[in-house]
């Protein structure tokens, strides 16, 4: 079995045959598992993807390093291997430890008026990373992409989806002081456009074809789009956040949480970054929440029966799970009681792995289902309840997001953040970041904030005390000798 996106694509390789019938395909435009000889789509083989994309698996050592640097228990997505792969995440942890700047970047292609539960995975995780690291976050809405990659959608339609999707994203709980959301149609220009062109100059048509599988009939907007999604990885695209000194901003990397389908854009960007001496973006990849129909496909915003949408009513959730959720149970109750169910393919169980916080409870459910003590209907009922609770809490927050809140998140403005409060020294971001900003605001203006100064003073005192103690010890040791 082979995936169709070539990890070495940037090296001017011949164009691989994309989306060859029956093969596993994972790229920004297609996600499907291998089709077996029996015609059944298999689950996505994520180990194979790690190998072929050239990423690294997140292992126990990295999780321990994360916990040591942040003092935080890894998120359930990390504990359960849902966020499973990365590129240079360890470098971000090193920067955090040293108090050096970086930022978070993620995005959404507004293809419908509501996001589905699958889309909330990278956003939930990004929020948690923002809370953990206390760094700026940019969220890109690729309205241009969703126009270019659809035969039917109009510009007006995708722009309309932008504001409803922005509300969905805000309802995840991002901090407005640290978050900038933008739509490509609104924001492209200035420093951002310079970076887009800079990136596009370093990508040949051959490379774009090799990475994304374009052919001679592909419209040129699609071919160029990668440079827009890629250029957002560079801090210098956001002078209102990071300042105007490109010598300094070029060194500030992004950490990009996303599902693994988005990796090709950033593999390409990392290659160009290295060539033009810009910081390479780091990535942290999630697996897909399967479509209701089962493993091997991801939920699709344009197929209603494939997904639970964040606007669905409790009844719709119940009906969709009961009617469509693929079951790993046996055909009869007797057989199920005797042989037990298969949790690895059971969609309800898989959804619980994503959303149920309690590890012990999840383990109890797994064991009971695999032993046949828990029936499919009972498992579905647990899943329905969990999803109804998750979606209802989201809808409550979503109802409070007014248009003016969206305007606030989407306004070009300096952001405020602190970074690692325990770092020995916090490296100031850059000069000139507060262009046009009100005076006296904390953070984002290149100077240390009051908080940072306080922490710095405190750290100096701790260091001085430590040095004094070490000196005393040394003196005692000399005396003793
Ligand atoms: P989009 O709108 O297809 O998806 C938004 C985010 O959700 C992830 N995703 C999923 N994660 C888990 N389970 C699923 N079933 C599922 N479906 C989608 C996607 O990987 C993505 O992280 N081109 C992008 C928008 C974008 C972007 C970015 C995304 C621009 N810049 C940087 C991530 C990072 C898109 O159309 O995403």
TrEMBL record:
SUPFAM superfamilies: Nucleotidylyl transferase. GO terms for biological process: tryptophanyl-tRNA aminoacylation. It comes from Cercophora newfieldiana. The keyword Ligase applies. This is Tryptophan--tRNA ligase, cytoplasmic. One of its GO terms (molecular function) is tryptophan-tRNA ligase activity. The lineage of its organism: Eukaryota, Fungi, Dikarya, Ascomycota, Pezizomycotina. GO terms for cellular component: cytoplasm. Keywords: Aminoacyl-tRNA synthetase, ATP-binding, Cytoplasm, Ligase, Nucleotide-binding, Protein biosynthesis. It is found in: Cytoplasm.
């Amino acid at each position: 079995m082979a995936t169709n996106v070539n990890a070495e694509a940037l090296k001017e390789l011949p164009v691989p045959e994309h989306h060859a019938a029956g093969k596993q395909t994972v790229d920004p435009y297609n996600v499907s598992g291998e089709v077996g000889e029996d015609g059944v789509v298999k689950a996505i083989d994520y180990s194979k993807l790690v190998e072929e994309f050239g990423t690294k698996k997140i292992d126990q050592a990295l999780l321990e390093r994360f916990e040591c640097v942040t003092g935080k228990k890894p998120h359930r997505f990390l504990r359960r291997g849902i966020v499973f792969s990365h590129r240079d995440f360890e470098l971000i942890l090193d920067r955090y430890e040293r108090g050096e700047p970086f930022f978070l970047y993620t995005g959404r292609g507004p293809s419908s008026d509501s996001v589905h539960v699958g889309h909330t995975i990278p956003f939930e995780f990004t929020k948690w990373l923002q809370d953990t690291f206390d760094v700026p976050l940019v969220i890109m809405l690729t309205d241009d992409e969703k126009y270019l990659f659809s035969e039917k959608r109009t510009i007006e339609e995708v722009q309309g989806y932008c504001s409803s999707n922005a509300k969905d994203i805000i309802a995840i709980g991002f901090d407005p002081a640290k978050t900038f959301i933008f739509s490509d149609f609104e924001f492209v220009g200035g420093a951002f456009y310079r970076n887009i062109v800079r990136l596009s100059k370093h990508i040949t048509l051959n490379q774009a074809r090799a990475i994304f599988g374009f052919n001679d009939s592909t419209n040129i907007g699609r071919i160029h789009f990668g440079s827009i999604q890629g250029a957002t990885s560079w801090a210098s695209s956001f002078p209102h956040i990071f300042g105007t000194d490109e010598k300094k901003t070029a060194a500030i990397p992004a950490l990009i949480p996303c599902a693994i389908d988005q990796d090709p854009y950033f593999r390409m960007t990392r290659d160009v970054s290295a060539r033009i001496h810009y910081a390479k973006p780091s990535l942290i990849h999630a697996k897909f929440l399967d479509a209701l129909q089962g493993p091997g496909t991801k939920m699709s915003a344009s197929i209603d029966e494939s997904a639970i949408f964040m606007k669905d009513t409790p009844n719709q959730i119940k009906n969709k799970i009961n009617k469509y959720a693929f079951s790993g149970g046996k055909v009869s109750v007797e057989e199920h009681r005797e042989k037990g169910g298969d949790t690895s393919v059971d969609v309800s169980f898989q959804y619980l792995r994503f959303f149920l916080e309690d590890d012990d409870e999840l383990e109890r459910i797994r064991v009971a289902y695999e032993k046949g003590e828990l029936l499919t209907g009972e498992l579905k009922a647990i899943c329905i309840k969990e999803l109804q609770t998750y979606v209802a809490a989201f809808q409550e927050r979503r109802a409070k997001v007014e248009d003016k809140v969206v305007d606030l998140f989407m306004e070009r403005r300096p952001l405020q953040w602190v970074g690692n409060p325990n770092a020995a020294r916090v490296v100031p971001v850059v000069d000139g970041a507060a262009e046009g900003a009100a005076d006296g605001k904390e953070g984002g203006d290149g100077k240390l904030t009051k908080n940072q100064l306080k922490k710095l003073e405190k750290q100096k005192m701790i260091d001085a005390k430590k040095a004094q103690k070490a000196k005393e010890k040394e003196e005692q040791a000399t005396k003793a000798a």
